[in-house]
Amino acid sequence: MNIVEDIAIEFVENKYSDSKNLTEFMDLLESEMLRHRKESDKLRFLSSVKNEIQNIYDKHIKECTNATNCIILKDALKCIYYINGIFYEYGISSNVDQIISEKEKIEYSLKLDKVLEELTELKNGHELIYNDLYDELQELKKMYFLGKKNWKQLLAGKTIDMVAGGVISEVVSKELIEITEMATSSLLSN
Asked: What are the distances in angstroms from CA 85 to CA 10, 70, 88, 136?
């Protein structure tokens, strides 16, 4: 967990149930987003808030005796709907098929870790290149909130940049592109 996710969790804990109504909470949410300068931080914050509200919904629905008319459940769903609208403004789809599941996050992370393990030989004498690659792949692991399509495009773009810059070889790049499930021959042709 990073500082942005911590801020989001604290924000929901302090503002969600204390807000007089959903409109007030959404206004507070938009104000809080303005504090984050980087777009990636705004999106990570928003994603974490959405996850926390989803957790509130999931926990409450198990205990709720009147789910059809429950204001807590309705407000949570409305809030998630409004947050999805903000994601849409950023060009991030909220379609279920585009959301990266926890299982897929683990799978992608393991594949990225495998590439890093294979590159440990590169580290000797090439620490700067290895460290740059390591940082890039670790940053990708924090971007799953972008959704499948955008995350895979980001991975492909970073891979192509690293090949063009001579940071990684075509062999390594093919392993990374395979994660995206894109055709490597069209992306990495000589």
From this structure: 22, 23, 5, 29
